[in-house]
Structures are given as structure tokens and as C-alpha cells.
Amino acid sequence: MDQTNYKGNPNLKPAAIEHAYSKDEVKEFIRCQKNPAYFIENYVNIVSIDEGLIPFKLYDFQKEMVGTFHSNRFTICKLPRQSGKSTTIISYLIHYVIFNEAVNVAILANKAATARDLLGRFQLAYEHLPEWMQQGVMNWNKGSLELENGSKIIAASTSASAVRGGSYNIIFLDEFAFIPSNIAEQFFSSVYPTITAGQTSKVIIVSTPHGMNMFYKMWMDAVNNKSEFIPIEVHWREVPGRDDAWKEQTVKNTSEQQFLQEFECSFLGSINTLISPTKIQEIPYADPIESNAGFDVHVKPQKDAMYCICVDVARGGSNDYSAFIVIDISTVPYRLVAKYRNNEIRPFVFPEIIYNIAKAYNEAYILVEINDIGGQIADALHYDLEYENIIMSQMRGRSGQVIGSGFGDGKSDLGIRTTKAVKKVGCSNLKTLIESDKLIVEDFDVIVEMSNFIQKGPSYEADEGASDDLMMCLVFFAWLANQPYFKELTDEDVRHRLFESQQKAIEQDMSPFGFIDDGVSYTETSAFTDVDGDYWVPTDAPDFFDEERF
Fold first, then answer.
1. Which fold has domain 23-241?
2. Which of 25, 131, 146, 175 is catalytic?
3. pTM higher than 0.85, yes or no?
């Protein structure tokens, strides 16, 4: 058996093979060790579609990337498609394992097959290194490899269990924006503490944007100096061969939106969202001041403030959360001050959590969605915990489901039933509240759901793979804010305020054409018809049926 190669591969040096280095090789080895970019350009080969196996000649922005990786522990890269981002990082990893002893490297991607493909590129480039440059191979397979100097590399999908229990010197996260948010959150909550425990460990995150998710948050935190990550951004024009003509052809073959996301690297969410994409991208997010077991606090309870809690109950599951939001309804604009979201909470525990938060927020009013098991939650709050400020609803003829005090001809429910009418009115009013800045939302998880809450048929729901539990809480609140009884609770007529703002917008649009006094209009708070078809007249308006006027 040939002992000069690894398992019959003539391009791989096996372990325990001594090499007598020449002076030139020693000199070159030292130069490569000090300069990763030099090593890559002179010794790393890549496969070109048109030319086959060729030396990897780095573009200027790729040289800067390599320098940033080498000099910093934490790097996050926002790059366009087909810019050689993954190949650049793989080349740097080859340098890292050759010139460092006993280091562990993890190559992680949204799919295990993708990660193994990246490792395959690593192996191909490694095979074509000069024998004197290689470390001897101990183990070599599709999912991992081990070198004679003690360095190891694994390839796996990005998950909380992928690297749990291990100690890694470099973790490379490829196309991080395409990893579902719940998995990305679990990964960092379980793995990140072990990464940061070291003094020299590195994390390299690279992706093309894919909506507003954890990659978006980590990128914005890096840009705003809220984290240790160094941001690297590359414009598509920095890639040689790309100009206006190339852009025009690419847009023609794809779409304007696809080009914006994949090449302009815009953080676009899903299309056909309830809230305007432009508005969503303008919304600033803020980190909660307190977080505990799914409960995030943005503003602590304020003396004399009035709060409302809207609850969406789920049976649980990976993408199905029991959730509630806490909104300060003392003044307009309303403000989301806290939120809870948990997909593991047991139904019998949930009422007590709601109860404790409601008590803390000045005996907050609670509106529970009572479809399915939500009714059990509302009953537990009202009867078992004896909480009084439960908002009730009734069915009242043509008016449909309305909020009231619990008295009347119809049967009262401890909460709200999600019907087509409720969702339609809630979605419509929520859009107006958000886009007119009458409802302030700074929670990142809510904003993410907002970017994935899309039109499906005549209604709105979460995009595929996303969740909408927090958004539904907002829909319930928006429906509540549209109810006449809400004015009695808050002493704020939001319907009047929204009408006023809409009226002013109309006036601004019409002002170039002037207005005609019809002799009937009396004030800017004139009577109007709302979305439910109800006719509203201000109390100080003249009575057109008063006989004394005629």
C-alpha cells in the first residue's frame, strides 16, 4: 500500500510523513502564515465554470474581508449574490487550520447539505495545495476532517444542537438570514455563551438579506455599535463586470424586488404585507430593558397610567406561540410597553402569568381571544383568579360582535371571538394606527412578524414558515380601539382622532383645487360614517331636524 498519500488520494499527504523543508519553502511558509491574503492568492485554487481549476485572485473587497476576519473576533457581512463571499471565507479557514494547531472550526448553514458542500469546496482547495504546505490528514470524510496538527472541521446545519458541548475557535454561519428566526434565536441563546468564553474565538456571519429577522437585528446592532461585530458591506458595483447594463439585464431576468433584495441587499420583507414595507423599515426597534422567560419589558408600569393586555392563546409548537401584548392606552399615541411570547407554556400556567402582569400594570384591562382553548384561559382568569377587568363581548344584531360591560339582551362572552368581521376591522384599523403613528411599537419580534404578515385571499396571516401570534394580539387591540365602549374606558375617542387625521390628509390633497362652502358643513368635526356603517354626529353639531331652523 502506498504510504505517501492518504487512502490512495495522490493529492493528500497522510499523517506521520516527514518533509525536509528547503530554505525557500520555510521562507514562503512564514510569509503565508503572516499574510492570509498572500497565501490565498498564491496557493488556493477554485473551480471556475468557464475556466475550470484556477488560482483564486481576490478582488479588493475580498482582500479587505480577509484582513477583517484575521484582525477581529466577530464579523458580520452583508453581501450581494454571486460575490464570492463563501469562497473567500472558506479560503481563510484553510489558512486558519494550517497555521494554527489544535483548533476546531464549524461550518454551519441553513441546511446540512449546504454546509457539506462548503466543506467540499474546502477539501478541493486543500487537495491542490503543495504537499509541503499541507498538514497530514488524519480523517477525511463528507461531514468532517482532522489534520495532523490537531485541527478539526465539521459541517452541519445551524441548530442549537449542532455544536453544543463542543469548544470552537471559529464558527462560520453561512446565509444566516435564511435560517428560521426561532432556530437562530435558539442557536445563539445556547451556543453563543460558549463562544464568547474564549479570548481568541471568532464568529463569521455572512448572508444576503432575506427580510427582517435575526440577521437584520444583528446587522443593525453592528452598524449602530451596539455589539462587538464588525460590519462589512459590499455593493454590487464593487464586483468586477457589474455595471448598469448588467443591472438592467439582471432585473429583466428576475424582478425589481428580487434585485433590491439579492443585489442591493435591501432588507425587504414579504410582499403584500398589511403594513407598508416602507413604514416597516422606518420603524426603529429597541432592546427590552428586562427579559425573563419570554416576557420582555420596554417600559415599566407608570403611576396612574392605564393599560390593556390583548391575549392570543396557542396549543404550543415550534412555530405556534401563546402571546400577549401590554399597551399603554392612557394617551394617543398608544405604546406597546411589554410583550410575552412562549411556545412551551402550558395552558394551565398561562392564566397566572397574565394575572400577575395585569396586576403589575395597574389592574390592566384584559382582552382574550376565546376561540379554541382561549375560553379556558379567560374562565380561569375570571372565575379561578377572580380578576375583574376582563373585557366582555356580545353579539348585537347588525352591529355584530361588540364590546360592552357584560349587560344586555345577548349572552356575554369573556373575551373576543375571531371572526372574519373582527379580523377585517382589526387589520384595517391596525394599518391606520401604525402608519399614522398612533400606535408606537418598538419590539423587534413584533416588527419581524409585521414584515411577514401578508395578504392571503381576502384576509391576512403569517407568511410560510413565520408566526403571527403577536400580530394577532395587535389586531385584537386595533379592533378594540375601534369600539365605542373603548372611549368610555380611556376617555379617548380614537375614531374621532383617526377621522381627523384622515380629513386633514384629504384637505392637503385637495388644497390646490380649493373648497366650496355648501352652506351645510359646520365644523371640521362633521358627522361621518365609520367602517361598520354607523353614522356619527358630534354632540355640538346643529340639529338639522330642529324645526326652529326652518
1. Rossmann fold (3.40.50)
2. 175
3. no
